[in-house]
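Go through this chain.

——
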Amino acid sequence: MSDVVHIIGEFDADDSQSSSELLPLVYDELRRLAARHMALESPDQTLQATALVHEAYLRLVDHRQPQRWDNRRHFFSAASEAMRRILVENARRKQGPKAGGGRERIELSQIAPETLGPNVDLIALNESLDSLAGKYPRAAEVVKLRFFAGLTNDQTASVLNVAVSTVKLDWTYAKSWLRASLADGPTK
């Protein structure tokens, strides 16, 4: 314990020697501190306690912003504050638009793909199908063969010279793509 107090008092962020001496001495306590912070987090928190410790430590010994700690309590108080800020930043990032912005995540396997029904506007479908063909030609061919020609998966696979599983994937994708396109209006 006196080693920690001594190294913290003498700590110089530009001195890699004191930085490398400090981490092994404070790591276990930082880990316990991180575990306490993580216990208060929601179960869907993806940040691990070890990563939290490492990120906080890097912020504490940042050579661009040198810090002096008066004593052990001051150091661990700063470490706790750094961990809190990291967790808040992580939570804000998860609520941002790139991370879904608070939307509920569901697996595609939980959603049963719908088939195109008989009440389809064929003109809108044709325009959407043309748009699909411009981006995903094989998927558009699968739609033409399955929907318009009435072929089965096996027959479509034989015509296109691909595996049946490929036809099933293309068919599922194309139906979803077309459904979204028809809901938004035809795309060009």
